[in-house]
Design brief:
single chain; mainly alpha; elongated
Length: 38
């Protein structure tokens, strides 16, 4: 199939910020889990 360059470009622009937000959001979930799971 064809690669959508616009999508790739958007992902590259927003990738770092999205990853950071996901880590911050997931960190809150991880903190709830028992420490042995970390």
């Amino acid at each position: 199939g064809e690669i959508n360059l616009d999508v790739l470009y958007e992902n590259r622009l927003g990738g770092a910020a999205t990853t950071f937000k996901d880590r911050r959001r997931k960190a809150g979930i991880y903190n709830i889990w028992p420490s042995h799971i970390k």
